[in-house]
Amino acid sequence: MGDVPVHLIEVTPRELPGLQDTRGESIRSMLAADHNLSVGKVRSITGYQVKANLSPSELLQSLQDLFTDPIIELGTANKSLLDDKSLFPEPPELAIMVGFKPGVTDNAAQAALDGFYTLFPAQKDAQIATTMTYLFWDVPTDTDAVWLAKTLHNQMIERAALANTNHCSNSVWPQLSFPERPTVTFAPPATIDLEVSNEKLIEISEEGLLALNLEEMQAVQAHYRDPDIQAARKALGLPMTAPTDVELECLAQTWSEHCSHKIFAAKIHHVDTETGEDSEINSLFKTHIMQPTLDMQKEVDWLLSIFHDNSGVIEWTDDWSLCIKAETHNSPSALDPFGGAMTGIVGVNRDILGTGLGARPIANMDVFCFGPPDYDGDLPGGLFHPSRVLRGVHAGIRAGGNESGIPTVNGAIVFDDRFIGKPLVYAGTVGIMPRHLPDGRESHDKTPSAGDIVYMLGGRVGSDGIHGATFSSLELTEESPSSAVQIGDPITQKKMIDMVLEARDAGLIQVITDNGAGGLSSSVGEMAELTGGAELNLAVVPLKQPGLSSWEILVSESQERMTVGVSEENIPAFEALAALHEVEATAVGTFTNSGAFIVKHGEKTVAHLPMDFMHDGCPQLNLESEWKQPVHDEPKYPKSNANDMGKILERILARPNVASKEWWVRQYDHEVIAQSVIKPFCGVNHDAPGDAAVIAPLHGDTRGAVVSCGIVPRYSDIDAYAMTAASIDEAVRNAVCVGVDLDKIAGLDNFCWPDPIESEKTPDGRFKLAQLVRSNRALDDVCRAYNLPCISGKDSMKNDAKLDGKKISIPPTLLYTVLGDHQDVRKAVSSDFKDKGDQIYLLGETHQELGASELSYMLAEETGGGIGNDVPQIDTTRNLTLYRALTSAMSKGLVRSAHDCSDGGLATAVAECCFGCDGATTINLDGLVTDNTDLWAVMFGESLGRILVSVKPENTSEFESAMAGNAVAHIGTVDDKKTLQFELEGEPVLKASLSKLLHSWKDTLNMGGEH
Amino acid sequence: MIDTVRVAVLYGFGINCDHETKAVFEMAGAEAERIHVNELVNGDKDLADYHIMAVPGGFSFGDHLGSGRLLGNRLRFGIREMVQDFVKSGKLVIGICNGFQVLVKMGLLPGDEEVSLSQTASLTLNNTGHYEDRWVHLEFDPASPCVWTKGLERIRVPVRHGEGKFVTTIDANLDEWAENGQLVVRYVDPNDAYPSAGDESLPFPICPNASMRNIAGVCDPTGRVFGLMPHPEANHSTWLGATWTREMPEHGEGEGMAIFHNAVNFAKENL
Question: Is residue B1 part of a domain?
Fold first, then answer.
């Protein structure tokens, strides 16, 4: 292969009237928006490095029929476009070429190669790589070219070459060599001697990135001392008394915090210094998450599959089930925001595809927590600026979701300084599956038998994605491995999804799961539990590059792969379907009932892991927890007249947590599948925020499903119990706002915590664990009260970053997601005020609860003072009674609009509803302000259980009687005024121009420049 | 007059609106079938057995090397004659969003009488530089020969694309297509009285992508091959509209359905 020439193809957009170089323009506007750098002009050249033996005519054909659009582009082969003076009369001042590092997924190149085969089917050995060159003119003279290059590429995965002004004026252009994968030499399995000191055991774990603690290493050590085990190993030709590296890696994956949730399974000694409680909790998961759901399962018949599969499944209609799952992809997104987020979303899509016998992903939910996009403080080395993380993560989620044809229907973006160290990227997906397959099987149940063939489907295995699971169980450091970073390939996955769903309906699948964390070791290892064993042959696994060692093939998390069990008689049909869809399918092993997971590489056995040891051998952690209520200073409230209050509302609306996310959310396809009833935006100008998504996935049918979320990390600064209760209430409340059926709601709990294990590097571990205990107790209390079973969830427990010697921990965060039924989507309600004259009501009670509110944080930043201590408390009975009355009124058509009152309080909610009808109004606060509740709390407080609604004038009495017994305050009339005003006893207490409020709300996060 | 109108809805390689496209043809009374592109290439299925071919929206091959180009090439090189025979026999074709991009890149649209499959226009990046999902107002040319759009004045549908800017490099082409009634659908400002479609560029976001002459979709000279960037199939029912909760409509079929009814009725009567 060494002699094969590399042809360089260059393509650039033509510049003619009406045509522009949009890629270059986007870079120009990004530099202006994020870096305040004003560059005169940016152009772009796409490069294709084609490594193939091509005749001149073939080269020309590839240029004309493949690489260049004949209308809008110009291309050349093997000569630089920059040398063409008719195209570029003035040389650029800077030219920066960016390409991928060897081995990094290059989707454009993969697509180009596919197109190349269409033209030249015989060229099966061709290779292609892509580059992008940016050319700059009118660059401010003090611009650091190296800094600019770094801004345009991520050194973790990309390379860049730079031509400075001097180079450019001498026609010396940047060049990158073809990204040849370095040759990898196969290393035969090694034996790891564990008969060593405890210190050495820890060293083995740390050096191997195994993330196993001493007790766990000792448990492994003990296993290999068992005489029965030794005898079994001898018979298989394995080292008798010590693990192979394949076995140790496989155990490290299976036992990783990421895969086995050791903290949630731990025995916890919990002390509450406020109440004197001293108790023991045997697994937070079993006690506070699983048990409440199991108790609820006795009362309803629609909880089909909970906890044990890749997602939770509920019966939706007689014919269809829905399933839901959310994951986090925090560490990879910190290192490569684009690739990390993209693999996050396409990864959770595979969880849905791997549920039961396969479900179709139909809706994505994406929730991010970032540092503020306008952050101007110190940035520890090795961290990206939050605006770059935001752009990268957003682009990854956008590409992953849009290209897969899965609408992003719901989400949130939360900002706080502490997410600079570790951004949180939650990616969730809803799936749909028939209750029964044509062959009669229930599609939520896996039906494997010993003897079924194990197929690996989709992508190939490479050295990318090694140690993802164990790495995410470690703190982020400067040494974090680049091999843990990957880029997704949505099109390979889309082909696989199409194929799997057809295979499912044809009855060809017995069992299926995705290859995510831990790769084949986890997917085959977990499914082997169902039959009692499996045998895998690594030698037949298709590789991206030869030479990978056995353990690498076993644990690599290379993307876009499913593992499927197929019974022998279905092999021909299964393989034919794979061929039709151009999906690679390889038989890599067999499910057995031998009681062990046996891995071979060719003839040689390289691992023997008894199922019970693999899945139950990890010792339980014993942890210490101690709660002490933190005390904060109270906020300082500035003396303010009505105009000042108007300015305060303007500033609240401009805060990133409250501000419109429209510029970002519009870039997601939220309507593919043609099912979107309540969209992310509503209102006369389609720019008011939706509370929850309503989808009607059966075309032409009016039965719907509701998806909503709640997330309030800052309440943890006062109490993680309150944070958790508020998150769940917000998710439920949002679902109520669109008219969910409260008799069928299910939840997802996704915890992201800082490391809560007390240690030298985490001296406050007891407190962080106590926060986790309190959070779980809130989850238990609130979910039971709302009849809201948690059907799936996930935890990510090491969200700390240590950089430049400084530790940054995230605030403890729960994302709570609700999936609910909607009986008739024609009765769904949106948040925007509708017609002038409609009557406005505030439902629910307001209390003096400004602690950790958006207002308190803003005042703390503006005037000093603290965030206060009165964090909103939950009254589940009061809330549920109100929610039931409201959804019942909605089903009678009595409610014109409903909007959740949360971040920024009533004033924010009113403003957002007014944006929806493009008209302001006057709100009367008489009766809301009392001796116990001041004006600040009424206007900006975030008391739970409150919803702002509007009702047609002719329906008010029927509405009021439907709501009887609940707190209902009639506060105004929908109008078309220019000025939003709040009044108390006839006097204005807040005045603001609606158009100014709208601009404040919209401008903060509009990072594209267009309006 | 035929009893059953048969529709081939293509899919594979990242097409992703195939299910709803199949659904809208069925709602319009046709019998629709999802056909993998490879089933045509392999000869397992024959386009001649169908009356309508639909190329739905999606992200075929991830839009790499230009949206629609790689799938267009698969059709142009893989089933060239099958497609040409289908079109020449007077049957109907629709391309929506990515499907429209495919038809333009393979030269089927705006096309020519000979069905020569030579590209004369293109769809390129929106001037905003990114993908967007937003609702737009469309207006149809009443003088167009397009059989898909007969009787339509204006409808509201979403656009969902990053590369929807319709362009050509020769002005004369645009004039000729306009003359032929091939510039069948354009973005319009709903505040302007009907008819208002014109050549003068409308601002973002009324024209969401800076298309030349606000073009949202075109047909071939016969009016039987039609493509557009916006998604009429996404407005198949009233409860999918962008502002339906404000309008309290009599619930039923959405504004996008007329296009599919037109095609199915035409096929019934003429094929």
Answer: no
**Out of B70, B158, B167, whose CB is closest to A19?**
B167
Backbone angles phi, psi at B81, to 5 degrees: -70, -35
Number of separate domains in chain B: 1
- Going by C-alpha positions, the residue among A614, A598, A600 that lies closest to residue A254 is A614
Residues A1004, A652: contact at Cβ < 8 Å? no
Residue-wise pLDDT for A550-583, tens only, equals: 999 998 888 889 999 999 999 999 999 999 999 9
Question: Cα dihedral angle (A495, A498, A504, A508), rounded to 10 degrees?
Answer: -40
Q: Which of A18, A69, A676 sits opposite B66 (nearest CB)?
A: A69
Cα distance between residue A690 and residue A706, in whole Å = 12
Asked if B129 has any chain A CB less than 8 Å from its own CB, the reply is yes
- Per-residue tokens: B9: 């809805």
pLDDT at A242: 94
Secondary structure, 3-state, A694-711: EECCCCCCCCEEEEEEEC
Residues 154-193 of B with CB under 8 A from A: 158, 160, 167-169
Q: Contact A913/A680 with Cβ under 8 angstroms?
A: no
CB distance A700–B237 less than 8 Å? yes
Mutation pick from A117, A498, A830 vs chain B, by most beta carbons of B within 10 Å, is A498
- Residues A914, A842, A861: CA angle, nearest 5 degrees: 70
Which residue(s) pair with B165 in the sheet?
B124
State which residues form the domain around B49: 6-270
pLDDT digits (tens, 9 = 90+) for A700-737: 999 999 999 999 999 999 999 999 999 999 999 999 99
Q: For the domain that residue B218 is a member of, what is the CATH number?
A: 3.40.50.880
Instruction: Tell me how close the Cα of A162 comes to any Cα of chain B, in angstroms.
Output: 24
Distance CA A136, CA A147 (A): 14
Q: Look up the domain containing A11 and give its range.
A: 6-169
Residues ≥6 apart with Cβ < 8 Å to B9:
B18, B21, B22, B25, B32, B33, B34, B35, B54, B56
- Residue of B95, B224, B238 whose CA lies nearest to B149: B224
Residue A371 exposure: Cα atoms within 13 Å on the Cβ side: 22
Whether A186 shows a pLDDT value over 90: the answer reads: no
B20 touches chain A (CB under 8 A): yes
| Pairing state between β B6-11 and B31-36 | parallel
Are B232 and B96 a contacting pair, CB within 8 Å? yes
B42: contact with A, CB 8 A cutoff: yes
Statement: residue B217 has pLDDT above 80: yes
- Residue B143 within any structural domain of the chain: yes
Residues 6+ apart with CB under 8 A from A859: A635, A636, A637, A638, A865
Quick one: pLDDT band at residue A349, thresholds 50, 70, 90?
very high
